[in-house]
Design a protein that fits this description.
Oligomer: homodimer
CATH superfamily of one domain in chain A: Winged helix-like DNA-binding domain superfamily/Winged helix DNA-binding domain
Structural class of chain A: mainly alpha
Largest interface: A-B, 71 and 70 residues
Order of helices and strands of chain A: HHEHHEEHH
DNA sequence: TATTATTAAATTGTGTACAACTTATTTTTT
DNA sequence: AAAAAATAAGTTGTACACAATTTAATAATA
């Protein structure tokens, strides 16, 4: 919590130690995520996006149009959060929301021309990180891998058929 | 986003590469923090806390009573978020909020007897992580260190006189 | 085929999270 | 000491985040 950064182990950790460390991990994870989002806020505001909207747009730019359901699986958000976010993106003119004819339960999220164009403008957003990241490239890579491994673990039971069936 | 986990570098990364990786880092950080908080939700509910309230209580248990200001610095929250959280903790009977006589601007947050007792009950909370963490102890340590280093970097300009002057 | 179960979105209610602003109190300047 | 600046909480408004429920459509089954 805040300080007490050094952890030194000379013996094999038992289950209790592991859980304790896991618990200690929660705070910097929570705080770090929050602070990074804060860094992004201003540059994103300039191009008319919130952080969550930015995440949505990044997925659409990378993987193309998809259903709200699929989108939610990719970014770990349920319809309770996603529906209002998508409605705002629609109001901003970056996406269209369209019921799927073959199965009216699904809503397909479609990038508009403006939504596609926004990708270029968004290229400048990561510059906000400059002067705020004090990790080396190797450290960033390591952090990236560890976070993804942790995420994978959390989703062991959550079957996300990742690339397949593009609803 | 979601996949594309492998990053392989054979040459020295330029600034653009670093920013790009930094940007890629944002999503797993955001998603991982969210998922971990989700894991904690149920066990915390049993002892009558939300995640943010748990963070507050952990700081108070570890460092003792302190002003709202000090608390906010430690957990990266401003009064806009913290004041309502603390009012709820007060209503739940875990803390008292008391103006400081010497400087009426400050509010001191004080653990009640029930607030102190809650620490014992909270010991079972980390067990929620069992079966959800798929990182080795070494990996967790590494992740912990990297997150704290990143946090330190973000706060280079944010002077938190961490342990000192206990307001 | 009629009934039941499942599913994707949408809705509702609670709880953060934060920028911008207000209020009350203390410090600093003049 | 009076005026101005600074500071800690509190307030307001917007935007998630999520559990629980509802609605509408499709699939499964008796």
């Amino acid at each position: 919590m805040g300080t007490g950064k050094e952890i030194i182990m000379t013996e094999l950790p038992n289950k209790s130690e592991v859980l304790k460390l896991g618990n200690q991990l929660c705070f910097p994870l929570y705080a770090c995520a929050k602070e990074v989002i804060k860094i992004y806020r201003k540059p994103l505001e300039k191009i008319g996006l919130t952080y969550t909207q930015y995440i949505v747009m990044m997925v659409l730019w990378k993987f193309g149009n998809m259903s709200e359901k699929k989108l939610g699986e990719k970014i770990y958000l349920d319809s309770g959060t996603l529906t209002p976010v998508l409605k705002k993106l629609e109001k901003s003119g970056f996406v269209k929301r369209q019921r799927v004819a073959e199965d009216e339960r699904f809503v397909k999220i479609i990038l508009t021309d403006n939504g596609v164009k926004l990708k270029q403008k968004a290229l400048t957003v990561p510059q906000a990180l400059e002067g705020n990241i004090y990790l080396s490239y190797d450290e960033m890579t390591k952090l990236y891998d560890l976070l993804n491994k942790a995420l994978e673990g959390i989703n062991k039971r959550r079957k996300v058929n990742d690339e397949s069936n593009d609803n």
